[in-house]
Amino acid sequence: MGISVNDVEITDEAVERELPHHANAPAPVKAAVEALVLREVLLQAARNKVAMAQEELRALETSQAEDAESLIEDALIDRLIEMEVQSPVPTDEECETYYRKNLDQFRNGDLVEASHILFQVTPNVPLDALRGKAEEILQQALAQPAQFEELARTYSNCTSAEVGGSLGQLTKGQTVPEFERVIFSLEAGEISPKLVETRFGLHIVRVERSAEGRTLPFDMIKDQLAHYLAEQVRARALKQYLKILVGQANIQGVELEGAKTPLVQ
């Protein structure tokens, strides 16, 4: 069965054109199809609800002739969202409450110097065997910390093996979250007692040195925080609106989460 929204077909050619925008998604084809379906749902709702002045249409049609239709569609969708998706602006009190509950997010300058031994997951190596070997080397490292660099040179699948596993100085945001949580929780000279698992594989992690930063004052980040919270609220409101539109549409060939009523959580 083909994919359609209220009898409007989502063609294979359209999916192929959309696919490069989702190359990094876990399931690129699925992500491309869902994006096209949601765009069509929005576009149909916009055509039913949004009236654009003739002068606006003429300006869009003449701005870039080859992309005129796409520009008009984008403008219709933007106008629809502006009309239908309402989200409150956070107050100073709400911003300050969020700030005080999440002080770690507003630290600046935290620094660690870390090393690791990476056991990379590959199709040719059974995960159980890889984990067993990684655990064996972890116990060696914990028992004889002075051998960490030698173990990294021998066993690590990372290019850092050439320098004894050293990753140099790292600040927050430079590594994947699960790795970051560990390195910023260890004391200088400490080796994590457990393997750290990321999408890159299994890691034995040691922190060489660490330096604490400072928490930025609320007045310094108040405006940026208000913008961030407003965007979060708007994103939730848009998601809610899309669920309602999806629930009201006749969508064939793909399953999307929708709601038949505005009373949806």
Automatic annotation (TrEMBL):
Molecular function GO terms recorded: peptidyl-prolyl cis-trans isomerase activity
Keyword Isomerase part of the UniProt annotation: yes
Gene3D superfamilies: 3.10.50.40
Keyword hit for Isomerase: yes
InterPro entries noted in UniProt: PPIase_dom_sf (IPR046357), PPIase_PpiC (IPR000297), PPIase_PpiC_CS (IPR023058), PrsA_foldase (IPR050245), Trigger_fact/SurA_dom_sf (IPR027304)
EC number: 5.2.1.8
Catalytic activity from the UniProt record: [protein]-peptidylproline (omega=180) = [protein]-peptidylproline (omega=0)
Annotated ranges, domain PpiC: 109-209
Keywords, alphabetical: Isomerase, Rotamase
Any Pfam family the entry gives: Rotamase
Top EC class of this enzyme: isomerase
PANTHER family on file: PEPTIDYL-PROLYL CIS-TRANS ISOMERASE HP_0175-RELATED (PTHR47245:SF2), PEPTIDYLPROLYL ISOMERASE (PTHR47245)
Membership in a protein family: Belongs to the PpiC/parvulin rotamase family.
The name this protein goes by in its record: peptidylprolyl isomerase
Organism for this UniProt entry: Sulfurirhabdus autotrophica
Source taxonomy: Bacteria, Pseudomonadati, Pseudomonadota, Betaproteobacteria, Nitrosomonadales
